[in-house]
Write a structure and sequence with these properties.
Blueprint: E1 12-19, H1 25-39, H2 49-52, H3 56-61, E2 68-73, E3 78-83, H4 91-98, E4 103-109, H5 116-128, E5 133-138, H6 146-162, E6 172-174, H7 177-181, H8 185-201, E7 214-216, E8 219-223, E9 227-236, E10 238-240, E11 244-248, E12 254-263, E13 266-267, E14 270-272, E15 276-281, E16 294-296, E17 334-337, E18 342-346
Parallel strand pairs: 1-3, 1-4, 4-5, 5-6
Antiparallel strand pairs: 2-3, 7-9, 7-16, 8-9, 9-15, 10-14, 11-12, 11-16, 12-13, 12-15, 17-18
Helix pairs in contact: 1-8
């Protein structure tokens, strides 16, 4: 059966959910898709909780480990939504997700307030350059005391201000993702209010379409009978079917041709800056590509073995060091070695 064609009729944004484990990020993602599918079934599809947490470990433990992607449309915009993991052991996956988004929904449980990973995720959002946050005060149906909800909201605003976000301006919407999934009209309306806040507060960023194509590779897949597919967010430029590309970084540069372009299972004539895209590569083996590389226009990017970086050392409150640095301290950085399937040697 032929795939449908993706037609650009609305501005496209990349959004995500982040926050402490068990505060309801994945439930909220499912609730958003359900509410929108009920309102406009022609353009939106309900993705159940089980369809987002797909890995066996996620199903067993009820947590999100790998980032998951869904799409939906409001009246004004088309969104690619990243459900980021909240579990502390999978922060690297959360960073991968946060680096892709134009804005994020910070999910905070009204019952618990800000928790350690709430702070950690706000810090990471600030460090990787997430420009806008909207707060979903989830599980608000379980808190009867309005003053307690006010206190939790104030606490979240102070946390955002502490890390450089405009805490007084950020929209904070009281929602119940679970009740919305169950069809409760009051809390279904709260999801609509949340999406209205995202539409109004998070602007459409300028897209750099004039520079050479570059897409960070987030994931690598093998499709039986067709070849190797790489997925990720297009950072700049545009790529059309049949155009040459190079896979650069972490090894020898690999030349190829884009023989297929898709977004969320729909065919693309061209992938452009801001798109969450999948690119089918001609003549490339699965072991030749890995996450962390980039897919680029030929000759536009040169790999380097030496680089300068800025390091932020987490404080004790942020989940980092409990003791100070001393003279002659030499930090070690563990860089993932995907080819061996384990952490590489200290650098």
């Amino acid at each position: 059966m032929a795939k449908s064609q993706f037609i650009r009729t609305k501005p496209h944004l990349n959004i995500g959910t982040m926050g402490h484990v068990d505060h309801g990020k994945t439930t909220l993602t499912a609730a958003i898709t359900k509410v929108l599918a009920d309102r406009d079934p022609a353009t939106n599809r309900f993705v159940a909780f089980e369809g987002i947490d797909k890995a066996p470990e996620e199903t067993l433990r009820g947590i999100t480990i790998n980032i998951a992607h869904v799409e939906y449309e409001t009246a004004n915009r088309h969104y690619a939504h990243v459900d980021m993991p909240g579990h502390a052991d999978y922060v690297k996956n959360m960073i991968t997700g946060a680096a892709q988004v134009d804005g994020a929904i910070l999910v905070v449980s009204a019952q618990d307030g800000s928790m350690p990973q709430t702070r950690e995720h706000v810090l990471l959002a600030q460090r990787v350059g997430v420009p806008y946050l909207v707060v979903a005060l989830n599980k608000s149906d379980a808190v009867d005391d309005a003053e307690l909800l006010d206190l939790v909201e104030l606490e979240v605003r102070e946390l955002l201000s502490e890390y450089g976000f405009p805490g007084d301006e950020v929209p904070v919407v009281r929602v119940s993702a679970l009740k919305a999934l169950e069809g409760d009209p009051r809390w279904t309306r709260s999801i609509v209010d949340l999406l209205d806040a995202v539409d109004a507060y998070v602007p459409v960023p300028p897209r750099n379409l004039d520079e050479p194509f570059l897409m960070s590779i987030e994931n690598v897949l093998t499709i039986s009978g067709r070849g190797t597919v790489v997925t990720g967010k297009v950072e700049r430029g545009a790529l059309r079917l049949g155009e040459p590309v190079e896979v650069v970084g972490l090894g020898p540069t690999v030349a190829s041709v884009a023989t297929g372009l898709e977004t969320f299972g729909k065919s693309l004539d061209a992938a452009q800056a801001g798109d969450d895209a999948a690119v089918l590569l001609r003549g490339v083996k699965r072991e030749q590509v890995q996450r962390g590389q980039v897919l680029v226009a030929p000759g536009s990017v040169t790999p380097h073995r030496a680089f300068r970086a800025t390091m932020h050392a987490l404080t004790k409150e942020e989940g980092g060091r409990h003791t100070p640095f001393v003279a002659n301290y030499k930090p070690q950085f563990l860089l993932p070695d995907h080819r061996r399937g384990r952490v590489g040697r200290p650098r």
